[in-house]
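Hello forum,

I keep getting stuck at the same step: I have a sequence, I want structure tokens, and every attempt I make locally crashes halfway through. Rather than fight my setup again tonight, could one of you with a working pipeline run this one for me? It's a single chain of 526 residues.
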Amino acid sequence: MDRVSVTEIVPRMSEAVGTPAEGLELVGRVARLLNTGLAAEETLASVAEALRRGLGAATVQVWLREPNATTLRAITAPVAPGAPRTSRSFATLPEAEAGAIRLPLLHEGERLGVLEVTPVGLGPAAEALLPIMADVLAPFLASIELSEDLAYEVALRSREIEEQRRFITLVIDCLPVGLYVIDRDYRIQIWNRKREMGTQGLRRDEVVGRPVFEVLTRQDAHQLKEEFDDVFATGQVRQLDLQVAAGGGGEVKFYRISKIPMRQDGTTISHVITIGEDVSETHVGQQRILQSEKLAAIGQLAAGIMHEINNPLATIGACVAALEHRVADEMSGAGEAAAREYLEIIDKEVQRCESIVDGLLDFSRPKGKAKGPVSVSAILEDTLFLVKHHERFKQIEVHRDLAEGLPEVFANGEQLIQVFMAIMLNALDAMEGGGALTVRCGAGAVHPDEVEVDIEDTGVGMPRGELSKIFEPFYTTKPPGRGTGLGLSVCYGIVAEHGGRIEVDSHMGRGSVFRVYLPVHGKGAS
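Reply #2:
Ran it on my machine without issues. Output:
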């Protein structure tokens, strides 16, 4: 009512409705309705009805500007049952229709709506009260628009915040690492999808808000708390490597755990982010690199000592030959037989030393034997034919599963026979009391451009701690005198020289399986 003074209202109301008291009563009733705290449209409908009765009008409509500022929606009194809500273009108003009085609802120079009255039996005097009502309604409409604008802004910001939260959650869930966050009370605040799919398989809604020590029960709670306290106290990133048994099959996983301090207010460390990365493949690769480095070192050693050993062996061999002639000339009978027996022993031991040196030489400096396309299945058949003449071969069962039509590999057949024979003979040694030997050959399970050979036994198996050592030169699990420890080392070198790889899996009391992977001809073979 800023636009009309009180002294102006009374005479204008008197002219409009007969007495000032009646006009004041109507204005007071409208003011009370505007302050009931009801919903905006319900309030406007009540006001329209009060005006209709107070003015004796046929209809009263309050046109309210929509948020898009281009259309108006009508609040009408009386409202016909089931009547649809009226909506008109903002541009077509306030052009009054015949018999209707229409006033713009202005607030601070801005048109917020329109008040429309269709009087019955009222003369022009009603126009004296309608501007007052317009001045009363305009601020209310402004408050409605302000509330709607604020509600829209709050909804928009809330939607933006929710979308940003969902985006950040999606990013965290897409990370290929397990991630969780704890606060100062050691309670879990974030638990990403990788953690849900981890070895424990705990869902997010099962762990968020709980103390981390109740969730990660496989780790020592005291040690875990010390790790978190160290990060909270120092603000330094901490890393450690963890070895975890995965499943009941004896499989071991290697994880790199990183604990990262988080400062929510920019100064004080409020949270610790823990990231667990599965580095099992990297660990295996590093072990292979270390193994290759060891083999290279042994190869260099073998090359260096070759002449040093061969020279005395040659001297011993020459002396044996000379002694044989002297024995033949100077001895006879039992003495000659004993001397010849000793000479034969010396000669055999010299040959044994020479074979060890030759093995080291083959291992350290491959002789570049001729290669060509060969069938792995045929090589395995040839190897089994040779091994079957071994005495212990008759005590075991042999199962063949050799796929037909496999692509050829680019290799030296004799060297592959050497590899497969060494593995099979080791299997026979592991099954001295009998058992089963299974030889399989097929396309690579992981890489289809490889041929995979599996040689499996049902022997005594090997402890997991020994699996990383069996390809080291001179390492053997056999009793003294039963092996030199060079067989698998030479096999490793031959397979590597063919561009392939060799792996082993073993369980105590259940046996071992050696897997040899060779690239098919034309797919990386050298």
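The mean pLDDT is 75. If your local run keeps crashing, start a new thread with the error log.
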